[in-house]
Amino acid sequence: MTWNLILLFFLLLVLILKTPAVIRLRSLRDAAAFYSLWSLTVAATLLDMADLPQFRPLDWVRSIMQLLS
């Protein structure tokens, strides 16, 4: 099993466990931040598995933070 598959399983576990807590917050901004960062992380992992070009991690974190501020 590769590290990317382990990371994808971990990300799926985080999604399942943290979604109720995000919903309980009732904050659209927090939910948007969580789900956008989660989906970007999954996309980056899948792009890495396919050996396709991707953003560097700090680039996409900075772009999300600029959208939210």
Could you explain the architecture of this structure?
The structure is a single chain. 83% of the residues lie in helices and 0% in strands. The chain has helices spanning 3-25, 28-49, 57-68. The model has no long low-confidence stretch (mean pLDDT 85).
The proportion of residues in beta strands is under 5%
Q: What is the string of helix and strand elements?
A: HHH
- Helical content class: over 70%
Which stretches are poorly predicted, pLDDT < 50 over at least 5 residues?
none
Biggest beta sheet summary: none
Mass-distribution shape: flat
Q: Structural class, judged by helices and strands? A: mainly alpha
Number of DSSP E strands:
0
Assembly state of the chains shown? single chain
| SS field, number of helical segments | 3
Supply Rg: 13 Å
Rounded mean pLDDT is: 85
Please report the distance between the alpha carbons of the first and last residues.
39 Å
Structure summary:
The protein has helices spanning 3-25, 28-49, 57-68. By secondary structure, the protein is mostly helical.
Key structural traits:
transmembrane, mainly alpha, membrane, 83% helix, 3 helices, single chain, 69 residues
List the helices and strands and how they pair.
Layout: H1 3-25, H2 28-49, H3 57-68
